[in-house]
Amino acid sequence: MTPESVYVFKFGREALNNRVIIRYSHTWTGRQRINEIDLRLHKQKHPRIFRTEDELLAYLESRLPQREKREDSEDAK
Question: Which domain of life is it from (predicted)?
């Protein structure tokens, strides 16, 4: 077994400090296995934690209609 590795992806404006942190390890065959995905938005102290990519995508898809509605109302102003 190898120790856990981490990828950090920063996105958005610098002031928001948005990031996705992916903790992964390698199997004995050399494949990467994702252990945990943390989504931290707007300097959150307690991130949303997902076990799989599917959980993350389901969360993001559920938030998309709210985001689109908000952007449409801002454009109408």
Answer: Bacteria
**Tens of pLDDT along 25-61?**
988 898 999 999 999 988 788 889 999 999 999 998 9
56 token code pair: 């993350």
Q: Is residue 9 part of a domain?
A: yes
**What number of other Cβ atoms are within 10 A of residue 50's Cβ?**
20
Q: Please give the single-letter amino acid code of residue 47.
A: P
* DSSP string across the chain: ----EEEEEEES-TTT-EEEEEEEEE-TTS-EEEEEEEEE-SS-SS-EEESSHHHHHHHHHHHHHHHHHHHHHHHH-
40 assigned to some structural domain: yes
Sole residue written with tokens 């993001």: 60
